Amino acid sequence: MILTPSDLQAIALTLRVAGLTTLILLVLGVPLAWWLARTRSWWRHPVGALVTLPFVLPPSVLGFYLLVAMGPEGPVGQWTQSLGLGLLTFSFGGLVVASVFYSLPFMVQPVLTAMQQLGERPLEAAASLRASPLDRFFTVVLPLCRPGLITGTVMSFAHTVGEFGVVLMVGGNIPGVTRVVSVQIYDHVEALEYTDAHRLAAVMLVFAFAVLLSLQWINRRRT
User: Fold this and answer.
1) What would the pLDDT profile of 84-113 be if each residue is shown by its tens digit?
2) Closest Cα to residue 176, out of 21, 2, 6?
């Protein structure tokens, strides 16, 4: 199977976007999941709904509103311009921001489920040993929620790799800058280059199968 240089470039860019997005989601999504699992605030319900919104919202709708928000007249666009950062639209940074929003529930939901199943006894035992809340979080909560963390990390990375609608709306189709694998496949199909599209799509198919097979093996080993 021979991939074109533009295919390899799109794969490399996709892996960069997915890797950086996953790291950001770990930093943001895990504390958010812990807050959702522990808080009794009324805000838990609207925040939880916002987090899971990408599950049901068409990617083009989310991409459109992100495009407007990060555009020259949008609040985010005006803020980034005032800081001298320019616009995030049609840039690598814009792809990462859009991917974080779109893949957020794939990180938060598995981690939230694991944290909700944790119960109070491990935390009470750690508190009886005079462990601080931060110490309990890192030495008790995270180790016991490791299966959820692994699932969230793998699914967030894989979901980001397969994005199309959101990244196309926000990033466009700039070679080497915003043209990810899904957009590259679309370009091949538009140009009637079905052989090239098949090769790249086969890579994505093998990748998706390997991800799901790995998750099943991890879950089976845990059980």
Assistant:
1) 888 898 999 999 999 999 999 999 999 999
2) 6
Of 9-23, 26-40, 120-134, 204-218, the poorest mean pLDDT is in 120-134
Q: How far apart are CA 161 and CA 167, in angstroms?
A: 10
Q: Which two tokens stand for residue 163?
A: 């994005």
pTM summary value: 0.89
For domain 5-112+149-222, give its CATH number from 1.20.272.10, 3.40.50.620, 1.10.3720.10, 3.40.50.150: 1.10.3720.10
CA atoms within 13 A on the CB side of 166: 23
User: Domain extents for the chain?
Assistant: 5-112+149-222
Region of residue 58 (phi > 0: left; psi between -120 and 50: alpha; otherwise: beta): beta
Single-letter code of the amino acid located at 127: A
